[in-house]
Predict the 3D structure of the following.
Amino acid sequence: MPGSPIIPCLRYADPAAAIDFLCGAFGFDHHAIYADPNDPTIILHAQLALDDGMIMLGSTRPAHAGDLYRWRTVREAGGVTGCIYMVVADVDAHAERAERHGATILRYPHDNDGFPGRGYETLDSEGNVWTFGSYDPWAAFTD
């Protein structure tokens, strides 16, 4: 299986804008996007890829995952509900790209405290926290 078997899933109030933001600011590529045939503003399922990583996302839909899982966006929850970490080769260049595309940088690129590598923290278009870093936790298993 290529990539990680763990794939984060997110819900967005405006998934089309989120997809544009994630691709522009963070460098994701469209892998698959399925819109509701009756309402193309509703994204039923989308997959975005970055190197060997992937995320899946979709529209907030109260009668769907919203009710079943009590799923809330960051804004609905009133705070962070989790964060996503992704390995990138050049942390500083990635942060510059994100900022050029309007990302709110929480912590600019810095050397990690107590473990190798560099990283930075940022928000996506709806307030989800993302950390991008050069530290690859899988490398310890292959060295």
